[in-house]
C-alpha cells in the first residue's frame, strides 16, 4: 500500500543535463585509462582528454542546471538525493576521495628512479606541462596541485552560476579562484622555473606551520634577497597583518577569500555544506580539538626555536620527530584524508572547523578583538531555517535570528551564505564599531518593553 503522504519522485534531469553529466562520467573513465595505460604517449592523451571532458561537462552542466532557474539560493530535494544526504553516492564519493589521499600521501613517493607508485602514469603524463611551468619533471605534488586547482576552478564556475544573483558571493568566489590559481599554483611554479625556493604566498603560520620553523627560515635566508623577503612576508603576515586584518574584517578576509583549503571547501565542497553537525556535542568536540591543536603548534614552534638557540642540543632528535608526527597526524591525516575525503559525509569544513590552527587563531581574534559581526533583525525572521541549513560551520543561525541577536562566533568564516539564503533580508554582514557588538536588535528590545509594559 502506498503511504498517504509519500514523497513525490525526484524530478528527472533534462536530456541536455544528462548529456553534460555523461561527459563528466566519460572524463572519469578516461582518467582511469590514463592511470592504467603503460604507454606514456597514449597515457598523456588520455589524461588531457579526461581533463577536457571533465571541464566541458562540469561547466556545461552548471550552466544548464542553474542558468535555467530563477536567481536565488534553492535547496530543493537536498535531503532526498543520495549524493547530498549521506546516501550511497555520497559514501562512494567519500571512499574514492579518501583512497586518493591515502595513495597520494603514502603510496606515490619517488622511489629514486622517477617512479611514483600507483600514480606513476598520471604523474608522468604531466611532465611536459611541469617542464613548461617549473623547468622540471612532474612529481606527485604537482599532480595533486593540478587536480586541486582544477577542482577549485571548475566548481568555482558552478558556484558562480549558482550564486550569480549575489554580488558578494560572486566576488568572493572569484577571489578564491584567483588566489588558488595565481598564488598557490602558478607563482610557486614560476619561482621554481627561475631556481628560487618554492613558496606559497597565500599560506601563513600556523596553517603552513613550517614557514616559521628555524630550519625553513634558515634555508630561505641562505637563498638570497628573495628568500629574505619570503621570511619577512611570512612573519609579518602571520604576526602583524593577520591581527590587523582580522580586527577590521573578521576571519572571512582569509578563510573565505584567500585560503586554498577554504577555497576548495567553498567550491568543490559547496554541495555538502548542509551536512555540518549543528548539535552542541559537535560544538564541544570543536572546542576540544581545534584549540589544543593550535596550542601544540605554538609550543612546537617555540621549542624548535629554543632548540635552535641552544645549538640543537636542547631536544636532540625529539624536535624533528615531533614536527614529523604533527605533519603526519594533522597536516596529512586530518587536513587531507579526513578534511577533504569526508566532505560528502561530514560537510565541507571538517578541517576548518575541528583541526585548522589558523582558523583557531583567527577565531580567537574575531571573537574577542574584531569589529566583524552578523547582525540580525528578529522581527523579520520567519523561521524558515534556510540560514542554518547552509551554514557550513555548524552554527544554528536561525536561533540567533529568531532572538534578534548578533552572531559573534569564533567559528564563523563569514562566507555570507546565511545572509544570501535568507528570503527576508534578516542577516547582514557588518564591520561596525566594537561597541554594541553583543547587543540584540533594537526592534527586539522595543517589543520586549511593550510586552513587559
Automatic annotation (TrEMBL):
Record-annotated membrane-spanning stretches: 46-67, 88-107, 141-161, 173-194, 226-249, 289-308, 328-346
Domain 4Fe-4S ferredoxin-type: 372-400, 404-432
InterPro entries: 4Fe4S_Fe-S-bd (IPR017896), 4Fe4S_Fe_S_CS (IPR017900), Electron_Trans/Redox (IPR051684)
SUPFAM superfamilies cross-referenced by the UniProt entry: 4Fe-4S ferredoxins
Superkingdom as given in the UniProt entry: Bacteria
Keywords: 4Fe-4S, Electron transport, Iron, Iron-sulfur, Membrane, Metal-binding, Transmembrane, Transmembrane helix, Transport
Protein name: 4Fe-4S binding protein
